[in-house]
Specification:
The chain is of the alpha+beta class and 178 residues long. It has four helices and eight strands; from the N terminus they run E-H-E-E-E-H-E-E-E-H-H-E. The longest helix is centred in the middle third of the chain and has 14 residues. Belongs to the HPPK family.
């Protein structure tokens, strides 16, 4: 790949704490505007209210997914995502894993790349197991294929058990945010 090439990336966004931008929903909207400064958002999902996974004693999350066009290589693009997180008050080095956060930006997929380095795993290792990612991803690109599992996002979502954190009643689409 050359640096002049453009790539399609899919980014998961999540927030369950106030940030300098406001409520979690306002934070997601502001983060999408920040993403527009470093590339082109080509599609965006609805906002979803979801129960926390792992550390359950924390507020519900607001989640969304965007598809994005970038000329950055995945490692460089990931660094830009982490810089946006920091600008919203999150530092992954000091925050509790799976804990409350002002903003979480996860690089889910880039083109059909499969990458496994100390700093980056593509596709995101938990992508196929999380309704809060698959529901918004299937909303904007239901036929997108997982490059390792060779299944569409719609099929991966349909295959999730409806229990625990993946229970459909624990994921709620919110009305559009002004």
């Amino acid at each position: 790949m050359t640096s002049a090439e453009t790539h399609t990336a899919y980014i998961g966004l999540g927030s369950n704490l106030r940030s300098p931008a406001g409520t979690p929903a306002e934070t997601i909207e502001a983060a999408i505007r920040e993403l527009e400064r470093i590339g082109k958002v080509t599609a965006r999902s609805s906002l979803y209210e979801t129960a926390p996974v792992g550390l359950t004693e924390q507020p519900s999350f607001i989640n969304a997914v965007v598809s994005f066009r970038t000329s950055d290589q995945p490692d460089n693009f990931l660094e830009k995502l982490l810089a946006i997180e920091r600008s919203f008050g999150r530092d992954r080095k000091t925050s509790t894993p799976k804990g409350p956060r002002t903003l979480d930006l996860d690089l889910l997929l880039v083109d059909e790349l499969v990458v496994n380095t100390p700093s980056l795993s593509l596709p995101h290792p938990a992508l196929a197991d999380r309704r809060f990612v698959l529901a918004p991803l299937a909303e904007i690109c239901p036929e997108l294929q997982h490059p390792v599992l060779n299944k569409s996002m719609r099929d991966l979502l349909a295959a999730l058990p409806n229990d625990g954190a993946n229970s459909i009643d624990r994921v709620r689409i919110l009305p559009p945010h002004p």
